[in-house]
Amino acid sequence: MAILVGIDEAGFGPILGPLVISSTTFKIPRHLMKADLWQILRNSVGNRRKQLAGRLLITDSKKAYNKSLGIKHIKRTTVAHLKCLGKNPTTLNELLTSLCSDCISRLKFYPWHQNTGNRCLAVDETDIAIASDVLKLNLASNDIKLLEMKSRCLDVKYYNQMITDVRNKATVLFNATSQLIQSTFDNFAGDDDLQIIIDRQGGRTHYHRILRRSFANTELKILRESPTVSSYELKDNNKQMCLHFVVGADERFLPVSLASMTSKYLRELLIDNINQYFVSLHPNLKPTAGYWKDGLRFIEDVKKNIPHIQFDNNQLIRCR
Predict the structure, then answer these.
(1) Is this model's pTM higher than 0.90 or not?
(2) 264: closest CA among 38, 12, 90?
(3) Where does the pLDDT of residue 36 fall: very low under 50, low under 70, confident under 90, or very high at 90 and above?
(4) Neighbours of 66 (CB within 10 A)
(5) Residue 288 near residue 294, CB atoms below 8 Å
(6) Is 17 left (phi over 0), alpha (psi -120 to 50) or beta?
(7) Measuring CA to CA, how many Å separate 245 from each of 10, 198, 204, 232, 256?
């Protein structure tokens, strides 16, 4: 058997809201390592919105999300997969507990995140149960098992502190990604072949130096460094793993697509908290997705329309 892991982020570019990085971990037969998992699991999942016929959409979150559908598919897919793990989050707080419990203690200090315990995810429980059961059967019939879904949610103040420490947001992202890699290595490296696929971050091709810093106690071997894929083998005592930084991995590998959707779902819920908080104070305020241009517009609108409301800039606005 082999362990196949996908890692991807949501929210690297915005000025508002968290940066979220997620990993999804599957145990699969070795002969399926290079197979198209969408084809193998075609009875329960698809990678296009058209002709899903009740199946779960798993694709790059940018393709799963649009203004008309919103987070419909992203929510359905994330929650159904969590149900396969025996987790049934019905509130934002329960979702955070399932994916990234360490951020909960930080979020409680934000005025716009005070109601995460009461924030209902509003899922169709019957639909989720059916979709999850079909997925579970489809996985089992192919000797595949979903082992873990995990996130690192870098809320704004925490993110800003990390930027202050390392002065580079790409390094902040890589450090958080490395924490997920280390956790996966600690939990799943062993007799099974551990392969981790990461959507390439920016234009970086060479990762060996930054990997040596993040995994100083491991033996590192460069397998390949090309414009499209950079692969490395890391060994520590009797355990080893291979890391693959791949261009377009969020569209090409199902575990990476699922990680992308998980990250997007968590980020969108937390961004919505910001919008709900400020719109409740000024109903005519136009909500924002938090990206640079519109995020600046939102900040100016808040200052103009509700100047009497005091808030900590360091909790709302991200450093660049």
Answers:
(1) yes
(2) 12
(3) very high
(4) 11
(5) yes
(6) left
(7) 16, 5, 9, 9, 11
pLDDT at 158 over 90: yes
Domains, the chain, with CATH or none: 2-272 (3.30.420.10)
Q: Which two tokens stand for residue 123?
A: 């899922």
pLDDT band at 192 (very low <50, low <70, confident <90, very high): confident
Model confidence at 147, in pLDDT bands (50, 70, 90)? very high
- Contact status, residue 255 vs residue 35, Cβ threshold 8 Å: no
- For residue 97, what pLDDT is reported? 96
Helix ranges, 189-281 (H): 208-214, 249-252, 254-281
Angstrom distances, CA of residue 256 to CA of 18, 24, 107, 129, 199: 19, 7, 26, 23, 7
CB neighbours of 244 closer than 8 A, spacing ≥ 6?
195, 196, 197, 198, 229, 230, 231
- Let me know the angle formed at the C-alpha of 170 by 167 and 174, rounded to the nearest 5 degrees: 110
DSSP letter at 26? E
Instruction: Please state, in angstroms and rounded to a whole number, the distance separating the CA atoms of residues 173 and 176.
Output: 5
Q: Provide the pLDDT confidence category of residue 66 given band limits of 50, 70 and 90.
A: confident
C-alpha distances out from residue 131 to 19, 142, 147, Å? 29, 17, 18
> 59 and 33 in contact (C-beta within 8 Å)?
no
Q: Are 54 and 210 in contact (CB under 8 A)?
A: no
- Check whether 125 has a pLDDT greater than 80: yes
Instruction: Using the CB atoms, write b or e for 137-176: b if 16+ within 10 Å.
Output: ebbeebebbbebbbbbbbbbbbbbebbeeeeebeebbbbb
pLDDT of 191 > 90? The answer is no
Write the single-letter amino acid at 319.
C
d(CA 219, CA 129): 44
At 244 the three-state DSSP class reads strand
Q: Which residues in 58-209 belong to E strands, given as ranges?
A: 145-154, 193-199
